[in-house]
Amino acid sequence: MNTFCSYILMGIMLPLVLITPFTVFVMIPSVVGKKAELQLAASRGEVALFEKDHLMFTSMFTLCCKYIAGHGIRVFASMLAATIHCRHLMVWNIFCSKNDF
Predict the structure, then answer these.
(1) How far is CA 79 from CA 2, 4, 42, 64, 94, in A?
(2) I need a surface site. Which of 29, 33, 56, 97 has the fewest CB within 10 A?
(3) Does the global pTM surpass 0.70?
(4) H helix runs in 1-101, sequence order
(5) Who contacts 17 (Cβ-Cβ below 8 Å, separation ≥6)?
(6) Backbone angles phi, psi at 56, to 5 degrees
């Protein structure tokens, strides 16, 4: 569980990343600026997402794709690093005692 706990928690909390800007705009109105139409839209908060469900599903799908792509890039980078350092890792395997690992 310790190995995958961070990925599971971040995956569960991913919808919060979508809702957070709306919450910040409601709590701190000075972030929005002086435009009246932006203030009116921001004052409604995340209700705007629920009213436009197509927008919510599209943005959530995009956010999930970015999350998966980010983890894919990290896995690829780890594989590339292991490929580059394979000789070094093999030396550690041969000359290191079995009790060290």
Answers:
(1) 21, 18, 43, 23, 21
(2) 97
(3) no
(4) 5-12, 14-27, 36-43, 47-51, 53-84, 86-95
(5) 63
(6) -65, -45
CB-CB contact of 17 with 10 (8 Å): no
Work out the burial of residue 42: count CB atoms within 10 Å of its CB; fewer than 13 is exposed, 13-18 middle, 19 or more buried: buried
User: Whose CA is closest to 7, among 58, 75, 80, 79?
Assistant: 75
Mean pLDDT of 9-16: 88
> What pLDDT does residue 29 have?
74
Spans of all domains in the chain: 5-95
